[in-house]
Amino acid sequence: MKRYIPWIVIVMLAISMIAGPVTIHGESISELNKKINELEQQKKEIQKEKSQLESEKKDTEQKLKENQNQQQSVQSEINQLDKELTATQNQIQQKEKEITETANQIEKLKNQIEKLKKEIKDLEERIKKRDKLLKDRLRSIQQNGGDIKYMEVIFGAKSFGDFISRATAVTTIMNQDKDILEQQAADKQVLESHKTEVEAKKSEVEDRKVALENQKQELAGLKSKLDQQLAEKETLMAKLEEEEQHLEHYVISIEDEQKIISAQEKALEKAKALAQQELQELEQLAKQQNNNNSSEGNVAVSHSGGGNGMFAWPVANGKDLISSPFGQRWGKLHRGLDFAVPIGTPVYTAAPGVVIMTSVEGDGTMRGYGNVVLVAHSIGGRSYTTLYAHLSSIAVSSGQTVGRGQVIGHSGNTGDSTGPHLHFEIHAGGWNGDANAVNPRNYLP
């Protein structure tokens, strides 16, 4: 963010003392009054600009604060999502463990079922044998008229001992028949019970496995949603961080411009004070002239200095030391000329003016320029600003009046510099980056 701040640094006394003679008559005083009014108007414009910048800065800082608050909120949401994702992942792992255990149970039940099948087969063999025995018994009963006459067997005994033997045999046969029937019934009941129990348990475990698989799928779906939400929050966070950087740079840019405007305001105050001083001197001279009844129309006041409005080389033999011209370089505008000079080479003011700003490397004002000096000039009714960068030392201060060819510092290698040199720029009006940079070669001897 850079805006052109129209201002004419008319350093009346400083420039007039250096540039040439001043004619004292009514028109000259009128011109000085006009220029003082112009300076006052420019001061008001700068104050208005300062107010606008301060308002913009407050608005930007508020946006920055809101951005940072939103970042904190989003970060809290991201942290919560991370916790939920961790918990969900743990639940999924637990379900996978339970599914594995259930699968092992199913495998064990399958083995039990196989074992039971063998037992069932054995039971079926015993039942089959008993069925045959019972069928043989029934067949024998049918062959004897459908009934075994146990009483005839007993009372057909020929002696008491025979009676006892026959009675015992009958009892044994009857008990055996009873045991066979009871065992048959018990075996069948055990068989059915085993079948029912194993099938029920197998069905239960299989149902549990299905339920666990469903729960795992639900958790996987939840994890997918949480992953999507997390990705969205992280994308939003990245955008907020990028916006924060832009806002911070914007605030810094505003602060840079505020410093430049403050320097311009000081220069205007200096110019106004010098102009008022010159006005007083002219009025005093005019008064003395009137008192002396001088017939001469103009009184010439000589001032030392040189220059006729043309810019001078900022270093000695500058014409032969240009190492990089004005123009496009590496995809962007190289705003001035580079002079290949060793560190410590004196750097001269290209024209009379007022130092509106000095900046040292690391103060965050003129990034990339290292130690830099900006000087405002009024030449031929137009305002210019010259810039001298990458200095090793600075010999002037903000608000100081300087003459053409005055040493303002020494060349160096500070800032974004690839080697010792002086970087020199000329701007039509106030310094405004690429917007009003002009080719210095067109303004030098």
Automatic annotation (TrEMBL):
Give the compositionally biased regions (Low complexity).
67-76
Q: Does the keyword Coiled coil apply?
A: yes
Give me the stretches of Basic and acidic residues compositional bias. Answer: 47-66
The source's domain of life comes to: Bacteria
Q: Tell me which residues make up the M23ase beta-sheet core domain.
A: 333-431
**Which InterPro entries does the protein's record reference?**
Cell_wall_metabolism_enzyme (IPR050570), Dup_hybrid_motif (IPR011055), M23ase_b-sheet_dom (IPR016047), PcsB_CC (IPR057309)
Q: Which residues form a coiled coil?
A: 188-292
Keyword list, A-Z: Coiled coil, Signal
GO MF terms on file? metalloendopeptidase activity
Chain segments carrying region Disordered: 47-76
Name the Pfam families on file.
CC_PcsB, Peptidase_M23
* Residues of the Peptidoglycan hydrolase PcsB coiled-coil domain: 120-193
Entry-linked PANTHER family: MUREIN HYDROLASE ACTIVATOR ENVC, PEPTIDASE-RELATED
Q: What's the name of the protein?
A: Peptidase M24
Q: Which organism is it from?
A: Compostibacillus humi
* Lineage of origin: Bacteria, Bacillati, Bacillota, Bacilli, Bacillales
